[in-house]
Design goal:
eight-stranded mixed β-sheet, six-stranded mixed β-sheet, about 525 residues, binds tetrahydrodeoxyuridine, Alpha-Beta Plaits, 19 strands, alpha/beta
Length: about 525
Amino acid sequence: MSEFRRVFLIVLDSLGAGELPDAGIFGDAGAHTLRSLSRSPKLFIPHLRRLGIGHIEGLGFLGAEEHPQAAVCKLAERSNGKDSTIGHWEMAGVISTSPLPTFPDGFPDEILNAFRSMTGRGVLCNKPYSGTQVIADYGEEHMRTGDLIVYTSADSVFQIAAHEDVVPLEELYNICRQARKILTGKYGVGRVIARPFVGKPGSFTRTPHRHDFSIEPPGETMLDAIQAAGLDVISVGKIQDLFAGRGLTETHPTSGNDEGMKLTSQIAGRDFHGLCFVNLVDFDMLYGHRQDPDGYANALTAFDRWLGEFLPRLKEDDLLLITADHGCDPSDNSTDHTREYIPLIASGKRIIPVNGGVRQSFADIAATVTQALGVAYGCEGRSMLGEMTDVRLHLRAKAIGAMAFSHCPYSDFRVGAAVLTESGRIYTGCNIENASYSATICAERTAFFKAVSEGERKFRMIAVAGGKNGIISGLCPPCGVCRQVMSEFCGPDFEILLVSPEGYESHTLGELLPHGFSL
Ligand code: THU
């Protein structure tokens, strides 16, 4: 039985959440798309704020609400790249160890020779070039000789321009399909693009018959798995190009954000079962690359307005995920993408507003989506669904997270605890050892004392995790002193979760401390 019937995964293209630790290697040290937007007077995003965008680690400048309504976190990119294709592949479960290749000096002879003999035509240009300039500069020679204009850009693309009267459209598309076959492996560019044009020398213009031939993802994606399970996989925007049409049951190309949001609303009005995967490209294409923070902020404000109408329409078994695929800081000194974390906001009637901190891969999205739909899919991502929908699993994760801060130079035994108060807050604690051994305090008491000293007096449950060198190999039940401290504030029904490697064991304080001392 699947937990959710419909998942909406909306990618705000290029909405980065700050530099990744390795951003410097990509020439992107200090990049921060969301921070740049926050400086624009045009940014007004009350709904994203209400959901909790400002609670994402490092995004406090967006404003933290007292009671966020969604689960949030930010995710690091494991793949070696920062383009849309690799970003979307990773969030769909496929991690790429090498980036899609770019050709700043043009394509090598090996490729061009194969291309010439396949097409029976010569090659002009073979350099990075502007699409309009390339037809102005080479169009006439192309018309005279029938040679094809091959050019590239800063992106991983092999573009072929040809006059519609010289190379009929179908022939150009066929040439692209043939090129796609030789552009594999280390020459596997993200897209081969047909760029037909018309007109006379001096007044050539491009036609709307551009067509993209994308490279297929190199492994099974969550889309393939969801489709194979017999569910719907609906794409809106450029998703179909990024996955070369694979794993989709229904596709809706769009002209931009407005149409994408409108289509998403329409699809939400239908009763489908599966994934609706949306890409809103304007953020990146119109504002990120063009270094226009105000334009970008306006576009995010428009999305937020749409979101305000979309959220109330979500049904009990709907899950909405809002994320990005890479950064494109509109205020840095380049028009290129930026290597950044991506934000994730998970909303729905059954979602607990937890903060998932910082996650290690975009692939956690694939693991979460497939689990939400009850589809079996193996990938390197770790699902967040349990933590987002089950308060005990969430508390378990918090306790494990708190082990990282343990100060235990004498025992090397790391303990973490997380206590949930009646007011819904969670306080974590770790063991803090001391050279004078008896001055050591346990993780559970650290958590309790933090909470009590913040004014908390009523507690719902605590999770405790521990193990030698931080490895959880068995249970870590609270010591007698900690049980006694708990009994000061909690009754016999207080729940104590003992974290195990696989899950947890649930006990009550009454069981663990049957005859506690009281005055
Ligand atoms: N410890 C806890 O943090 N909680 C317990 O309930 C039992 C013990 C810590 C204290 C010490 O730093 C380490 O575990 C080894 O005794």
